[in-house]
Design goal:
Elements lengths: L9 H12 L5 H13 L1 H17 L9 H22 L1
Length: 89
Amino acid sequence: MRHASRELTCQELVELVTEYLEDTLAPSERLRFDAHLRTCPGCTAYIEQMRTTIRVLGKLSEESVSEDARRELLATFRTWKADVAKRDG
């Protein structure tokens, strides 16, 4: 269990992003999440990218995305996530 007064790391933010976007975070976690966003431009950009992705993907069918594009998107996300984990290390 996370301690409510400890600052949220970038990796923790990534792990909580779905709950944040679905507005299901506990109030104490939401406060930590929002506090992190106020001080981290990288995570703020990540949240905006996720919102844009959700908005755009809501308009696409799975069949309309080529297999190559799907592989490239997954590889890009894995690379980004590994970079964040190294940075937060």
